[in-house]
Design goal:
This protein is α+β, with helices and mostly antiparallel strands. The chain has a domain of 56 residues. Helices cover 61% and strands 12% of the residues. It has five helices and three strands; from the N terminus they run αβαααββα. It has a three-stranded antiparallel sheet. The longest helix is centred in the N-terminal third of the chain and has 19 residues. It starts with 12 loop residues before the first helix and ends with a helix.
Length: 90
């Protein structure tokens, strides 16, 4: 006759939440086409003022800027590449 086996599984809910959020962010990242200034600030975890001073006033950013009715938009992939270039110069 077989004896009963007990299995105890402990889950790290914080790690699971972080993993799920990371996967969601990856999916959103892949699906973004255009971003505005507020979205750039959020994705880069920077204040609007810092984003303006360090990135948006840079001539490379001005080249990729699209304007419509005083609103600024950027192609996400191009903006990400310019941000990386600027950060590499720090």
């Amino acid at each position: 006759m077989l004896s009963e086996a007990k299995i105890n599984v402990e889950l790290d809910t914080d790690s699971i939440k972080k993993y799920i959020q990371q996967k969601i962010d990856e999916q959103v990242h892949e699906s973004l086409f255009l971003v505005d200034v507020d979205t750039l600030c959020k994705k880069c975890s920077m204040s609007r003022r810092h984003m303006e001073e360090e990135f948006l006033n840079d001539p490379r950013f001005k080249l990729i800027e699209k304007r419509k009715a005083r609103k600024r938009f950027y192609y996400w992939e191009e903006a990400k590449n310019v941000i990386e270039e600027i950060i590499d110069e720090w």
